[in-house]
Backbone:
């Protein structure tokens, strides 16, 4: 009986964590898309990205950033409720 209660509590906690994460992702996607995409990439919010100027010119870096942001759109949790 005790094991069943512990297991049920663990399942409830996992379910709640998943729902909380989904809620945070949805609210970030609606309000602060840049921060949303940064967190999807695994970076810490506000972490600076240092580019090597010799490898990539500034205009190329801008277009590369634009491409990476548009490519990350498919990582959004589409099964989330609105």
Residues:
């Amino acid at each position: 009986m005790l094991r069943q209660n512990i297991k049920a509590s663990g399942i409830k906690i996992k379910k709640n964590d998943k729902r909380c994460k989904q809620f945070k992702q949805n609210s970030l996607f609606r309000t602060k898309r840049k921060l949303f995409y940064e967190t999807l990439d695994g970076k810490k919010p506000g972490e600076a990205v240092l580019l090597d100027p010799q490898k990539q010119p500034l205009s190329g870096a801008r277009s590369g950033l634009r491409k990476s942001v548009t490519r990350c759109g498919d990582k959004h949790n589409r099964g989330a409720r609105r």
About this structure: The chain has a mean pLDDT of 75. Residues 2-31 form the longest helix (30 residues). The radius of gyration is 19 Å. The chain has one domain: 2-74.
